[in-house]
Amino acid sequence: WRDWSSDVSLPIFGTGVDPNALPVPLWVILIAHAAIALGTLSGGWRIVKTMGYKITKLRPVQGFAAETAGATTIIGASIVGIPVSTTHVICSSIMGVGTTMGASTVKWGVARSIIMAWILTIPVSALIGFMAFAVIRIIIGY
């Protein structure tokens, strides 16, 4: 076990540190890129099918309207500094476009499942993070 607090060579980052100038090792960047690529590869098409076919049937003009509304929302939120999930925004835009053809054209059961997944994501992620930390803490004896 090593007492990292006594190592003066480690940088201490506070609120005044420029996040664009943090020294991130190349291997961390490459692993992050690989994880994102593998996630997209493994689940990307399923998400595209759900968004394009399972929530409501979209024609090209409706897809264009949903994408335009989603992009406008994301850009507006970014300008104001509000963090938003692109998946949440586009899914909501697709539901909105679907309701223009009548509320019955949206498969609300699918929408309900998606919304429940959104709600459960944060507490489940917190629980998994807690359990991972507890296991690592036991392994390293901290």
How would you describe the overall organization of this protein?
The chain is an all-alpha fold and 142 residues long. It has helices at residues 26-54, 60-80, 86-99, 108-140.
Which descriptors apply to this entry?
142 residues; mainly alpha; single chain; 68% helix
**How far apart lie the N and C ends?**
8 Å
Radius of gyration: 21 Å
Average pLDDT: 85
Strand percentage: under 5%
Helicity, in percent? 55-70%
Number of strand elements: 0
Biggest sheet overview: none
Tally of helical runs:
4
What's the helix-strand series?
Answer: HHHH
Quaternary organisation: single chain
Name the overall outline. extended
Low-confidence stretches: none
Which structural class fits the helix and strand makeup?
mainly alpha
List the topology elements.
Elements: H1 26-54, H2 60-80, H3 86-99, H4 108-140
Helix pairs in contact: 2-3
Quick overview:
The protein has helices at residues 26-54, 60-80, 86-99, 108-140. By secondary structure, the protein is mainly alpha-helical. The protein is extended and about 60 Å long.
